[in-house]
Design a protein that fits this description.
Layout: H1 37-45, E1 52-59, E2 61-62, E3 74-75, H2 80-100, E4 104-112, H3 120-133, E5 135-146, H4 153-161, E6 166-172, H5 176-181, H6 188-200, E7 205-212, H7 219-230, E8 236-241, H8 263-279, E9 283-285, E10 289-291, H9 296-302, E11 307-309, E12 312-314, E13 320-324, E14 329-332, E15 335-339, H10 343-351, E16 357-362, H11 365-380, E17 382-384, H12 385-391, H13 400-411, E18 416-418, E19 421-423, H14 432-436
Parallel strand pairs: 1-4, 1-13, 2-3, 4-5, 5-6, 6-7, 7-8
Antiparallel strand pairs: 8-10, 9-10, 11-12, 14-15, 15-16, 17-19, 18-19
Length: 454
């Protein structure tokens, strides 16, 4: 096969394709019941004593529903269901620690839902339990997702006292028309107060999440949101495209389809946000993250240590990620294991002293190879396929069909291909998922279960 050099960048025909975000490979829709509690327990037992761990705690509760949301969460205004859930979460922590508690924890992430809904005292109690049952690295990152509309000063102080080092703030947009359309009205003043409380509690690393592709958004409103968000001086931005999948997230049916931008407009919005952040001095990280040059994530990119997991891009070096709570996913050296998303089912399993693993996938050699190629593309926009084949013990012609399929993408300017080395140019960065999908042996383009390519 001859080397290929892109001739003309032609993104248009790819913009409406539905492509996974590749926070895992194989992706979650291809998990099956072949992986259950026994397999998960066995994977925990087999973790090497010197393996590093990353922990994820899922808290599936919110006080109100944001209509754009695709997360697994339950709306409650009462404390009782949250308290009962946390009691079972503590039990699950104990069950895991009995099998794999000696390894060192490099990273802990609280997600949801709204994880701070547990309250300041309970948050502190849970962190104390985790530190008793697991061995934390001295420089471990402790991150938590925060709803700026609901963070009081007592909770902010409790986060700081518990050792939280980074907070991710859901902002999405400052466009009031879009905020009303998705059921999440949030002012700059409320967001600034949240940031001040976090920094006052000693949490200096602040991330801000933005969305493009929301109803009533334009390039101009996206640029205005960035301008406002920059006044918060966050260390990182995450910039995601709204995924309208009402067949999966039924509450999204509230959002009128005719208020959503088309694929070409989504691309313009994504580019406008990125350009504004680059002008402000941020480095672009992979597909959709931005960080100040001295941030650990930017440094990880420069040194080739950038990773990708269910929280997106990360500098987390852990060999295994252990998920706690309903719907949480664990990534082990042997594969993926996901807890049931059914809150009652998860509660019954944990209360009975049984892991709530409902599905997953055991990875074979081919999966491991493809996962490695996809991760490097998603992180570095470059991968040396022949070198990857050699390092993992595969024949040089193992991926000949996939490499041939790249030719049409090269002709359209989505990549450059030379001596088996794939490079995605800056102009095509926002379509790197489409390039990565060439190596996805499971992808069904007709299924419609994934977000559009941009």
């Amino acid at each position: 096969m001859s080397d290929s050099i892109p001739t003309k960048y032609q993104p248009g025909k790819y913009l409406n394709e539905r492509i996974p975000r590749y926070t895992s490979y194989p992706t979650a829709p291809h998990f099956s019941t072949a992986v259950g509690p026994d397999q998960y327990a066995d994977w925990l037992r087999r973790l090497p004593a010197d393996a590093s761990l990353s922990l994820y705690l899922h808290v599936p509760f919110c006080r109100s529903l944001c209509w754009y949301c695709g997360c697994t969460t339950t709306i409650t205004r009462h404390t009782e269901p949250v308290d009962k859930y946390v009691d079972l979460l503590k039990q699950e922590v104990g069950m895991v620690a009995d099998l794999a508690g000696g390894q060192q924890v490099a990273h802990l992430h609280w997600g949801g839902g709204t994880p701070t809904i547990v309250g300041p005292d309970t948050f502190g109690d849970m962190m104390a339990l985790l530190r008793r049952r697991f061995r934390f690295a001295p420089n471990a990152e402790i991150a938590v997702e925060v709803d700026p509309r609901r963070l009081d000063i007592t909770t902010a102080q409790a986060l700081g006292a518990a050792g939280v080092t980074r907070a991710s703030l859901g902002v999405q947009t400052f466009n009031e028309a879009a905020q009303r359309a998705v059921g999440r009205v949030q002012s700059l003043a409320a967001t600034q107060t949240c940031v001040d409380r976090l920094r006052g509690a000693g949490i200096g690393a602040i991330n801000v999440d933005l969305l493009y592709g929301l109803p009533h958004e334009t390039v101009e409103t996206c640029e205005a949101s960035v301008k406002v968000a920059l006044t918060l001086r966050p260390a990182r931005f995450s910039v995601f495209g709204y995924a309208h999948v009402p067949q999966v997230a039924k509450h999204q049916r509230v959002i009128a389809v005719d208020t959503l931008p088309d694929a070409a407009e989504r691309l313009r919005q994504e580019q406008a946000i990125g350009d504004a952040l680059l002008r402000a001095g941020y480095s672009r990280i992979g597909l959709d993250h931005y960080a100040l040059p001295d941030d650990p994530m930017a440094q990880a990119l420069q040194s080739g240590r950038l990773r990708r997991n269910f929280q997106g891009y990360t500098d987390d070096p852990a060999a295994a990620l252990i998920g706690f709570g309903a719907s949480a996913i664990s990534r082990m050296p042997g594969g993926y294991a996901q807890n049931t998303a059914d809150l009652r089912g998860w509660s019954q399993k944990i209360a009975a002293g049984t892991f709530a693993t409902a599905r997953g996938v055991a990875m074979d050699r081919d999966d491991i190879l493809r996962a490695a190629i996809i991760e490097r593309l998603m992180c570095d926009l470059r991968v040396d396929v022949p070198d990857m084949l050699r390092s993992l013990g595969f024949a040089p012609d193992w991926l000949n069909r996939e490499m041939a399929d790249l030719e049409s993408l090269a002709e359209d300017g989505l990549l450059q291909l030379q001596d088996g080395v794939i490079t995605v140019p800056e102009s095509a960065r926002n379509l790197v998922r489409r390039v990565a999908s060439t190596f996805d042996a499971y992808l069904d383009h007709s299924a419609g279960r994934h977000a559009v390519a941009v």
